[in-house]
Specification:
Layout (H helix, E strand, L loop, with lengths): L3 H21 L9 E3 L5 E2 L17 E4 L5 E4 L8 E2 L1 E4 L5 E5 L3 E9 L4 E6 L3 E12 L6 E6 L4 E4 L2 E4 L4 E6 L3 E4 L5 E4 L6 E6 L3 E4 L1 E4 L5 E6 L3 E10 L9 E5 L4 E9 L4 E6 L3 E10 L6 E6 L3 E4 L2 E4 L4 E6 L3 E4 L2 E4 L6 E6 L4 E4 L1 E4 L4 E6 L3 E10 L5 E18 L6 E19 L3 E18 L3 E17 L5 E3 L4 E5 L6 H12 L8 E3 L1 H4 L6 E7 H4 L7 E4 L2 E4 L2 E8 L11 H9 L22 H10 L16 H10 L4 H20 L1
Parallel strand pairs: 1-3, 2-4, 3-6, 4-7, 5-8, 6-8, 7-9, 8-10, 9-11, 10-12, 10-13, 11-14, 12-15, 13-16, 14-17, 15-18, 16-19, 17-20, 18-21, 19-21, 20-22, 21-23, 22-24, 23-25, 24-26, 25-27, 25-28, 26-29, 27-30, 28-31, 29-32, 30-33, 31-34, 32-35, 33-36, 34-36, 35-37, 36-37, 37-38, 38-39, ...
Antiparallel strand pairs: 42-47, 44-47, 45-46
Helix pairs in contact: 6-7, 7-8
Length: 668
Amino acid sequence: MKTRSTRMIHRASAALLSAAAAAINPGASHAAGVVSWQGGSGNWDNLPSWSTATQPNTGDYVVIGQNYATVTYVNTALPNAVLQTLNVDATNTATLTMTQHVLNAEQENIGKTLNGAMAQSGGINNVTGGQGLYLGYYAGSSGAYTLSGSGVLNVSFFENVGRLGTGIFTQTGGTHNVSGAGHTLTIGDGPTGAGTYNFSGGTLHTGSTNLSSSGAAATFTQSGGTHTIDQYLEMGDSPNPKGPVLYTLSNAGILIAAGEVIGSTGPATFTQTGGSNTCSTSFRLGNGNTGVGTYNLSGGTMNIKSECLIGNVGQGIFNATGGKLTLDKAMIIGSYASSTSSFNMSNGASVQVQNIYLANNAVGSVNITGGTLNDAGTFDMAAGNGTATVNLSGGSLTSATLTLVPDINGKATFNHSGGVNTVTSNFNIGQRGTYNLSGGALTTANTTIYSGGAMNITGGQFKTATLAFDNAASGFINVSNESFVVDYAQFSTLNVVKAAVTTAYSNGTWTGPGIQSTTAAADNSKSTAVGYGEASKVLGLSGNNTAQWQGQTVDASSVLVRFTKYGDANLDGAVGFADLVKIAQNYNTQGSQTWADGDFNYDNNVDFQDLIKIAQNYNSAIPAEAIPGAPANFQQDMAAAFASVPEPGAAMLLLGATSALGARRRRK
């Protein structure tokens, strides 16, 4: 049992310990309470200005609530004091300014129910507790924070700019940290909130940065400084936000984020006109079912080091009208069935990507009117059950491999009306895949048309190094009234072309698989067809000689294909004496003849039936002299062929032929 003397000794010892602790930490023996500012404008360390006539200390609930009051933070007496809460809040805005020293608080509310402002150009402000920093705490309130100069703001856990009220954070310099796992800067936090962050200088480092939580309006405008995010930039988590959800990056601004989600479950837009944006792990536009994410790139640089999802489950839209976009891995446009997404490129945009997967199981489109898109890997259109569309009307697209419908359940359409499309390796058109060329230029290394695949040429230029029809029971190239070139390197593709034209001919209907012509099929006069031949034979090229043909440069190792008239052996679009020479030189040869030799009905022979074809379309007078190299019976058969054509023009040609033959007899 303790004696009275013992209790007195213990009390004395406790008093001494308490005094010692107070000497070490002036706030340790302080009885915390509410401390209100009531001194108008003045310095923080002016004791009479506080309701307790003492400077706020550890654990105090501090209120600066006088209308129009401006308090300047000066604190040399209690540098280690940690306030429980600091409220800067008045009907007519109260302001706390800070240029030096250290301020510690577990929670800070700048505009809790009314209006408040804080301006920091120096010193260190530490918000250390689990409650965080709030600008515009309740609905109807407004809070503003300005950070500049050498000021340092450290916030543990949470910072809300516009929780339920209106918050504006302006940073022109200084250091702002909301860093650490789970530490989040939120711009616009509640359904009535509206947050704005204006960032033009200094550094901002967060664990995560969220724009618009629970439907708030949120705007982040960055024209300078460095914004580093350890985890995610996440934008738009409500289908019906109060206002716009927008991040704008311009000038010399730098954004570095582990991941970026734009349009999480609601609409959100990122607009970049300058600066640089680097995303290292995951980039998603339209992440959730109701998410709508839009990225507008018109200047600066963007580098996505991991997978890029444009329309993961929701809708994603990427507009590149300038600047440079580099993707170290794949770009997926339309990932899941609910997604409808697009990638749009124009003007001077430059895009470099490793692989493109368009509309895997969704609806996706790529629209190119200008700029340069280089795909170093595979460009797959409509894998799975997807519906994919590419519209190329300007600029250039280059890919190693381009495949329309790698999976039989998808549907892909490539509309090429302008610009340049270059495929450096394999160009594949699968079942339910259609390539429509009406303008511009398509150049490929290896072209394969699979069963059910279609290519329609109504304009532009098409050149490929190899051509194959793989089990193409219904696959075709429709040359319409145009042409194309197979410019092979080593082994001629003449036999492939010959077989494909022959199957498409289909007894003159031009509806079979292979190389067909809808124009010839619709020709009631049955005077048009698809002609083909080696450039060495058609144009007389050899060695390294080249020539211009149908707007393309061709050489001796080129196979030429075009819509033309029956009888046009030299593929110049007309039937005349030069074509008659060709058929004459090969007349009555059997077995392996081609169109350029005079086989105009695709039966491998050059004979009377082919002579009839040329007679039907001959548009110049029959020569008066014998054709060099023609066999003895050619003149007689030629006369018979022209006589079989019922048109008046043909009758005149026959009369001319008869006169010419008669004249030759008289000279003898």
